[in-house]
Amino acid sequence: MILLQSPSRYLLQILSNRIQSLEKGVELDCQWVEFDDIRYHIQGSVKNPNVLLLSVSLPIPPPETVLFGGLPLGALEAIKAAYSVVAQILDPPRDGFNLTLKLNLAKLPPDEEHKHALLTKIASVREVVMGAPLREVLRQLVTRTVSDLGKPVALVHRPNESFFLVPQVDKVTVIFPMRFSDSIDTVLATSFLQEFVEARRTAGLNNAPPCLWSPSPPQELKEAFTEALSANAGFVSFVIFSRHVEGRKLDRTVWNLSTFHAYVNYHVKCSECFMHTRMRRQVESLIQALDCAKPDSEKAKRNSPSRSFKRMSVKDGNNSLGSRSWK
């Protein structure tokens, strides 16, 4: 199993290279897309190399989710708390994006360790923005101040798809409708999720959040939109208690839950690739076995020199017939 890292490695590399080449004053204009359709655009000019414009586009939200100014609930407060030293929120953002930050690299701390930590935090802007509402609900779980008990809260995590939070006094149930466009991926994901639930029951994972899988929507989602409950690979539920989000566990739990579908999709594709590799190796071994099973006579026939024929002229043919008639 492999867990996805929260910082964007490409964004972190761009920021690190920019700091190292500030004296050169290089023009910067990069765009890229990461998993779950998160788009980035970063720009920097030669005249003011310390200033960068970082724009982020989030997945298209489904109808059941609620956004505030194009951002999830609590995202603005989370951005200000994380980047108030070096970043300024531009309103409105660049066209086609949900968020644009004006970064001032001159305000980075001089200490290399703190500087790298802040750059890593900037590269984790996806986690800060999309994980803000989930982080707020889990914080309320720790302080026992959860509101809207039992009411499902929809959070966007993929284009036109959402997962649900069902807050209660002593726990928060996180439910994922699992959807896959490919039929083979659906079969593999269903088997993977069932094994995932069984693995949770082993002795070494007693402290992990309880995990359940069902082919039909859980009772907690009886008030949710019908369109949001279409899942061809079933529903996965995690029950989060306060011990799972205490201290530094909060950020890790928020990230793992926010990217759970990408985590499953990654391992489904890896399993598919592994099976294709096994099939190719099996076919190659069968071909070698067939080559070794060919009889020696067939091999000798193939290795024997080919015969050649000389074309006869009309005169040679007549002489040959004449010689036969005298015999």
From TrEMBL:
GO biological process: actin filament polymerization; Arp2/3 complex-mediated actin nucleation
Predominant subcellular localization, coarse grouping: other
Superkingdom, taxonomy of origin: Eukaryota
Gene3D superfamilies: 3.30.1460.20
Residue spans of biased composition, Basic residues class: 302-312
InterPro entries documented for this protein: ARPC2, ARPC2/4
GO molecular function: actin filament binding; structural constituent of cytoskeleton
Start-end of Polar residues biased regions: 316-327
Region called Disordered, residue ranges: 295-327
One cellular component term from this protein's GO annotations in UniProt: Arp2/3 protein complex
Keywords: Actin-binding, Cell projection, Cytoplasm, Cytoskeleton
Keyword set includes Cytoplasm: yes
Family of the protein in this entry: Belongs to the ARPC2 family.
Role of this protein: Functions as actin-binding component of the Arp2/3 complex which is involved in regulation of actin polymerization and together with an activating nucleation-promoting factor (NPF) mediates the formation of branched actin networks. Seems to contact the mother actin filament. Arp2/3 complex plays a critical role in the control of cell morphogenesis via the modulation of cell polarity development.
Subunit structure: Component of the Arp2/3 complex.
Protein name listed in UniProt: Arp2/3 complex 34 kDa subunit
Source species taxonomy: Eukaryota, Viridiplantae, Streptophyta, Embryophyta, Tracheophyta
